Amino acid sequence: MTSVETGVPVGPTDDLLPGEGRAYAVDGRQVAVFRMTDGSLRATDAVCPHRGGPIADGQFDLGHVVCPLHQYVFRFADGGCTADGIGSLSVYRVEDRDGRIVVWP
């Protein structure tokens, strides 16, 4: 099986506290994984398309993440930015699988 079929385990779920984001290397790219306050997970590109800001360090809620450098807001649903002309983030499937964070790049 390839990583596309099985996903890529990046670390223990318990290492990512609710309300925290962290960047992981996944198949040669940086992916930001966020653990929501309800325990669910979201994953996007870890680098802002505007000026390379560290997305994993941004504030977030169930629907959006804010780049910490220039406060651009990106939707978890589709990676789109709420401001025109900034670009978008790729979003990735992510799951808690038996206590491990698994990402599909």
Provide a descriptive summary of the structure in words.
- This protein has 105 residues and is mainly beta.
- It has a single domain, classed as Rieske [2Fe-2S] iron-sulphur domain (Rieske Iron-sulfur Protein, 3-layer Sandwich), CATH 2.102.10.
- The protein contains 1 helix and 8 strands, in the order αββββββββ.
- The protein has one helix at 3-6; strands at 8-12, 20-26, 29-35, 41-45, 64-66, 73-75, 91-97, 100-104.
- A 6-stranded antiparallel beta sheet has the order 1-8-7-4-3-2. A two-stranded antiparallel sheet has the order 5-6.
- It is globular, with a radius of gyration of 13 Å.
- The two termini are 15 Å apart.
- GO terms for molecular function: 2 iron, 2 sulfur cluster binding; metal ion binding; monooxygenase activity; oxidoreductase activity, acting on paired donors, with incorporation or reduction of molecular oxygen.
- Residues 8-103 form the Rieske domain.
